[in-house]
Design brief:
By secondary structure, the chain is mainly α. 49% of the residues lie in helices and 5% in strands. The strands form two sheets. It has a three-stranded mixed beta sheet with strand order 1-3-2, covered by helices on one side. A two-stranded parallel ribbon has the order 4-5. The protein is globular.
């Protein structure tokens, strides 16, 4: 009976499932392909990587940002902020899909420091006057880049409602031109990661849905309007001819100046594809968005886009053709590296072939290619 008692004790301790859950551990099948793409290199945000190897050096700098935050708004007491976060502790804990090992006070301490540090990054990026010339982040472009990359990792997230709290506190108590948290975040990311222009997203996307965290923000900034999305259909074949084979069959490749990555069309022998730039953040961008899609299971247009591009690019000559037509721009050493990169993105994700966004496109290309 002792075993039965242990079992009942364990399930009584289980916390209820929560609709707040939005920050996940990356599935092993994805992490095993490229662990570094999911692991913070310079800064931990939130509890999942707190105290991780190589991340301690940033902890002192975080505290400097926290000190500056409270010194600029002296009416706000850190004690009151801590009390507020303690009241929210259960909700904060529920945002994470895995059990958090820290007790309530330690978790709140981590969230308070990391949330203010994150908000200060957004703030200083928009207001140069707040940047110190000796700042270890803004004074060093490479460090700034590395911090941003870490902020785009699914496991390295702060619940957005906490950032909203500190945003409200700051702009209520400081005479600074008001910017929404949405605007601050977009401005911070726009020159560092592929993201659609702010004007396009003010009328849909993030304003329709509550933002959960930065990865969620980026995903929703890329979520096309319903009118932009092709109809989902069952994918009958996983094969389409690669770019050079289509070119030899008479297909002409055209770059379209559209910020919507998914606006790929095949019309009258012309395959129209929006420009894609492969740079340092591209791998982190795609891998963590795909991981988030696979965990949330609400949609999968990023995964479907990567699947299509992987089929289009098989060898270096396919990359060279797309570069020649200004569809692809790569910062990688050569076309072979670019082809290997694109192919590697499709390793691990589950393909939802019954509801694939580019079924009509793939069928049209296969039909065109099969004509003698």
């Amino acid at each position: 009976m002792e075993g039965l008692q242990n079992l009942t004790t364990k399930w009584k301790k289980l916390s209820p499932l929560s609709s707040e859950c939005c920050i996940y551990r990356v599935p092993k099948r994805l992490r095993d392909v490229k662990e570094k793409a999911y692991t913070p290199q310079v800064v931990s945000l939130g509890p999942l990587h707190h105290g991780g190897e190589g991340l301690q050096a940033m902890e002192e700098h975080k505290l400097r940002y926290v000190k500056d935050f409270f010194e600029r708004i002296p009416k706000v007491r850190v004690e009151d902020c801590f009390t507020y976060l303690m009241d929210q502790e259960e909700k904060i804990r529920a945002c994470y899909a895995v059990a958090i090992e820290f007790n309530a006070h330690k978790l709140v301490e981590i969230i308070l420091v990391d949330a203010i540090f994150t908000f200060e990054l957004l703030l200083r990026s928009s207001f140069d006057s707040l940047q110190d010339k000796n700042d270890h982040i803004f004074g060093k472009p490479r460090m700034s880049r590395d911090v941003i990359y870490d902020m785009l990792l699914l496991e390295n997230q702060i619940p957005f409602f906490i950032l909203e709290y500190f945003h409200s506190l700051y702009f209520t108590n400081h005479p600074i031109p008001w910017l929404s948290l949405f605007e601050l975040t977009h401005k911070f990311l726009q020159n560092r990661v592929y993201i659609r222009p702010l004007g396009e997203k003010l009328n849909h996307g993030p304003q329709e849905d509550r933002i959960h965290h930065f990865v969620d923000f980026v995903l929703k900034c890329h979520r096309p309007q319903r009118s932009e999305l092709p109809q989902k259909k069952k994918l009958k074949t996983l094969t389409i001819p690669r770019a050079t084979a289509l070119h030899q069959a008479g297909v002409k490749f055209v770059n379209v100046s559209n910020q919507n990555l998914f606006d790929i069309k095949f019309e009258n022998g012309y395959l129209k594809i929006p420009h894609l730039r492969i740079r340092g953040s591209t791998e982190i961008f795609f891998r963590n968005l795909i991981a988030y899609e696979q965990c949330e299971l609400h949609d999968h247009y990023i995964s479907d886009y990567v699947f299509f591009m992987d089929r289009l690019v098989d060898q270096s000559k396919d990359v060279e053709l797309l570069v020649e037509n200004n569809i692809l721009e790569s910062k990688l050493p050569d076309s072979e590296a670019a082809a290997a990169f694109i192919n590697s993105l499709d390793l691990g994700p589950i393909l939802f072939s019954r509801d694939f966004y580019f079924t009509d496109l793939c069928e049209a290309l296969n039909a065109y290619y099969s004509v003698p």
